[in-house]
Amino acid sequence: MKALFIHDHPFIKNRETGALYTSGNLDSKLWERYLKHFSSVTVIGRCKVEDDTSRYNLAEKDSVTFNLFDNVRGGADYFRKRKEIEKRLIDEIQKHDAVIMRFPATISVFAADYCIKNNVPYVAEVVGCSWDANWNYGGISPKLIAPYSYIKMKKAVKKASAAIFVTENFLQNRYPTDATLTANASNVIVQEVDPKALEVRLKKINSQEADGAIRLGVIGNINVRYKGYDVLLQAVSDLPADLLKRITIDFVGGGDPSYLTSLIQKFRLEDRTIVRGKLKSGQEIFSYLDSLDLYVHPSKQEGLPRVVIEAMSRACPILASSVAGTPELLASEFLHKPGDAKKLSMDIVKIVQDVELQKRMAEMNYEKSKSYVFSVLEGRREDFFAKVKASL
Predict the structure, then answer these.
(1) Where are the alpha helices (DSSP H) in 241-371?
(2) The domain made up of 2-190+374-391 is a member of CATH 3.40.50.2000
(3) CB < 8 Å & 24+ apart, contacts of 198-203
(4) In the prediction, which pLDDT does 219 show?
(5) 283 secondary structure, DSSP code
(6) How far apart are CA 272 and CA 311, in angstroms?
(7) What CA–CA distances, in Å, run from 292 to 82, 135, 316, 317, 353?
(8) Rounded to 5 degrees, what are φ and ψ at 62?
(9) Count of Cβ atoms closer than 10 Å to residue 288 Cβ
(10) 3-state DSSP call for residue 49?
(11) Hey, which residues does 216 pair with through a beta bridge?
């Protein structure tokens, strides 16, 4: 049996070699979850060309074929080129036994429209909220399209024959489904929790000097406005002067830095920030997280934030917005409403001044992360896709 995977994800083609890479988690390892059940996978997505792909992960894998749009940049392109997109989607859907769509994604919505009209069963993988993604993206155009995209995604998920969600409750409540087969499993990729991570973290906390440097960190595409960088920078700029001079914010992520740089200049925090660029998933990210005193995730849009779970697995104290599924991960006292810089600023003050609280956060986060290790979640996914295959 052959499977078709559909999403908007922009894969990166190396200009010289033609090899395909990804800045996200749709890498060569991920396709294994489908190849356990299907003989081959065809991937429909988007493609852009870059000269330097050294910081990305390889997306290619044996038995995986890519059919990518290299002329669809997003936004209005989806609608200007809808007929071309639909033609390719229909051709591929008709050639495959199983159709898997990841949402939110406009290309997936187009595919769902066709499948609903023609009674073609499909699997919905729900990893985020279309409304949140558009409303918080920045600019007028995404806000205008938010109601449309929300309604279309809601219909697509409702009519799916099978659906798997990355949250336990949030996305299920916002996007209810009539699917007879459902499951939940985060997209997090933490192979196993390091048994020494908590011990190392507690030693780090105990070794802090009362008036020493404090390193805050955040990970995400630095060109994406809904990541809440403005909220974090506002919160830090509002800190008492004696605390502010001890703070460094260390930003990690790919993308054009001009938006983030403009925010840093706006809040006059040039000497309190580091824009590091992209780090490779795995050990590079874990080493970075280990170096932080506090991880902050002020995002205005999420499904279930993978990087928060990764930080939890390193026993990192964490502050985050209460968006989407994040309250399933962290206690409410460590959450702020999306956009609430005042609460985030107060939380930073409280935590950096309380060593015992940092230890409690480290222990809670570390223990909670064990529920999200790859082996646990992959077991759920394997059972789900085995049932999907049996139903075809």
Answers:
(1) 241-244, 258-266, 283-291, 306-313, 341-352, 355-369
(2) yes
(3) 198/315, 198/362, 198/363, 198/366, 200/290, 200/315, 201/290, 201/314, 201/315, 201/316, 201/362, 201/366, 202/315, 202/359, 202/362
(4) 94
(5) H
(6) 22
(7) 45, 31, 8, 9, 15
(8) -55, 140
(9) 18
(10) strand
(11) 249, 294
Q: The whole model's pTM is what? A: 0.76
The partner residues of 352 in beta bridges, in order of sequence, read none
User: Distance between CA atoms of 223 and 212, rounded to whole angstroms?
Assistant: 31
* DSSP element (H, E) containing 105: none
Residue whose structure tokens are 């985020």: 128
What are the pLDDT digits (tens) for 127-184?
A: 988 888 777 666 787 787 889 999 999 999 999 999 999 888 889 999 999 999 999 9
Q: Name the residue among 165, 97, 159, 161 with its Cα closest to residue 128.
A: 165
**CA–CA separation, 34 and 164 (whole Å):** 14
pLDDT in tens, 229-271: 999 999 999 999 999 999 999 999 988 899 999 999 999 999 9
**Joined tokens for residue 54:** 């050294």
What's the CATH superfamily of 197-370?
A: Glycogen Phosphorylase B; (3.40.50.2000)
Which H or E run contains 183?
strand 181-184
Instruction: State the DSSP code for 281.
Output: T
Can you tell me which residue has the tokens 């769902």? 112
- Residue 325's Cα: distance from chain center in Å? 12
User: Can you tell me the distance from the alpha carbon of 259 to that of 224, in angstroms, rounded to the nearest whole number?
Assistant: 8
- Could you tell me the two tokens for 366? 């570390």
First to last CA, the chain: 9
| pLDDT (average), residues 325-346 | 94
Q: CA-to-CA distance for 263 and 53, rounded, in angstroms?
A: 27
Binned at pLDDT 50, 70 and 90, residue 189 comes out as low
Domain with CATH 3.40.50.2000 in the chain: 2-190+374-391, 197-370
Read off the tokens for 131.
Answer: 């409304």
Give mean pLDDT, residues 279-307.
89
